[in-house]
């Protein structure tokens, strides 16, 4: 059964996300959250994520952010270091004792999703459309490095965990497979429950068989045929699952992730521009986890994106995942460009400042100044849309020499805008002049 979040209680207010009755035949729903800084858009997304995780009404809850300061829940259960069953996080927070850079953590979270998709029984047939939308071939190269391998030449010492089941397993690992685990990871391993520990140690054994001479793992994925290879050999599902286990607990690091762009060739995401990096990670991060009936939460996708990419983002998002059914996307943004191209059945804009829900068609292809004034309540300096309204009313009243009911309504709207303008803004002076003119003709 499809799930759809219609509204949510937040900060003692009811926030509407979609109408109660929607048009038949809508595959997916898209709601963009707008409002002034500090009103709580990111906190609202976090609250929605918590609801989705707890209720388990969705096949997946996917939280996506390219900000290092996102407020999404942790992807792991703190009590036993296991992943939350239906929750996936794509973002900059890293796992493990090595703190990766923000960009590497971001890329790694997306790469994990694509590997997870390869391991699923459903296959990766829907990913081809996503890569086509991005203008990339449906292939990717992964270079991964086990961080747990001991590099020291000194004698291997497990005395720190002597008398524990971990010490027994570590000695077995060394004796039977010549794997010595870096002592810095002993605490992490000790905190795993025994079943998870055995799963991690088995993953180390599996991965050890495909290590290169550089103690790295080099894998090539072809998503068009759902295969993963290392060298000339095909990597079975057991290898993919082993890599995922080690990535999940923070024992393996992604060193590089390369795609093939049509007309360009190989592109390392680590070397891509910040904008291209963020755009690819946003879309591929979702693609790696999404199923039918998923809830996708995206916080400020405009970060690092060129204005042109901001304009194209919603079209890219809707086209990339059009083959999925009953998914709900909720996006928080400060960008009028994000909203400008939002259109179609099932697309809405929720203003937290005003407590209103709008059909996206009302704002489609409107100018940035229109969006800033009418939707974001932040018109900025010398807003051309407000200037045009003021000049039009000025000309109308001068010509008719009277103030009609419609003119009075237009003036009231301008006076509301005036309160949001800076004192030094010439548009504020213009509105004052229009008000004086209207007052003059209204008195006669």
TrEMBL record:
GO MF terms, alphabetically ordered: ATP binding; ATP hydrolysis activity
Name this polypeptide is given: ATPase AAA-type core domain-containing protein
Pfam families xref list: AAA_21
Start and end residues of each ATPase AAA-type core domain: 265-339
Superkingdom classification of source: Bacteria
UniProt source species: Pseudomonas veronii 1YdBTEX2
């Amino acid at each position: 059964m499809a799930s759809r979040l219609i509204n949510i209680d937040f900060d003692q207010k009811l926030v509407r996300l979609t109408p109660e009755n929607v048009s038949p035949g809508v595959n997916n729903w898209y709601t963009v959250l707008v409002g002034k800084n500090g009103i709580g858009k990111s906190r609202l997304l976090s609250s929605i994520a918590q609801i989705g995780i707890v209720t388990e009404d969705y096949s997946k809850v996917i939280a996506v952010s390219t900000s290092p300061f996102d407020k999404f829940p942790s992807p792991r259960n703190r009590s036993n270091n296991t992943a939350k069953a239906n929750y996936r996080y794509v973002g900059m927070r890293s796992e493990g004792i090595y703190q990766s850079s923000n960009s590497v953590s971001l890329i790694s979270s997306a790469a994990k999703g694509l590997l997870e998709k390869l391991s699923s029984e459903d296959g990766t047939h829907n990913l081809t459309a996503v890569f086509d939308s991005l203008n990339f071939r449906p292939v990717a190269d992964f270079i991964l490095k086990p961080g747990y391998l001991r590099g020291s030449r000194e004698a291997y010492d497990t005395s720190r965990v002597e008398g524990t089941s971990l010490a027994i397993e570590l000695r077995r690992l060394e004796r039977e497979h010549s794997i010595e685990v870096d002592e810095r990871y002993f605490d992490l391993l000790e905190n795993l429950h025994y079943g998870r520990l055995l799963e991690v140690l088995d993953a180390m054994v599996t991965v050890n068989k495909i290590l290169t001479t550089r103690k790295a793992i080099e894998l090539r994925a072809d998503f068009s045929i759902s295969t993963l290879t290392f060298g000339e050999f095909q990597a079975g599902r057991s290898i993919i699952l082993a890599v995922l286990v080690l990535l999940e607990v923070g024992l393996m690091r992604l060193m590089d992730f390369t795609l093939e762009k049509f007309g360009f060739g190989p592109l390392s995401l680590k070397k891509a521009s910040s904008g291209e990096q963020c755009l690819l990670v946003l879309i591929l991060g979702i693609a790696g986890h999404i199923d039918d009936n998923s809830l996708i939460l995206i916080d400020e996708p405009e970060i690092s994106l060129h204005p042109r990419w901001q304009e194209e983002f919603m079209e890219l998002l809707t086209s990339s995942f059009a083959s999925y059914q009953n998914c709900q996307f909720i996006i928080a943004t400060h960008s009028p460009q994000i909203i400008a191209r939002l259109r179609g059945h099932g697309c809405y804009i929720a203003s937290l400042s005003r407590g209103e829900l709008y059909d996206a068609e009302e704002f489609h292809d409107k100018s940035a100044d229109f969006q800033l004034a009418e939707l974001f309540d932040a018109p900025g300096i010398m807003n051309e849309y407000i200037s045009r309204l003021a000049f039009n009313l000025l000309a109308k009243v001068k010509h008719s020499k009277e103030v009609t009911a419609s003119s009075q309504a237009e003036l009231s709207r301008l006076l509301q805008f005036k309160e949001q303008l800076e004192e030094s803004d010439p548009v504020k002076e213009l509105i004052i002049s229009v008000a004086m003119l209207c007052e003059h003709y209204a008195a006669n």
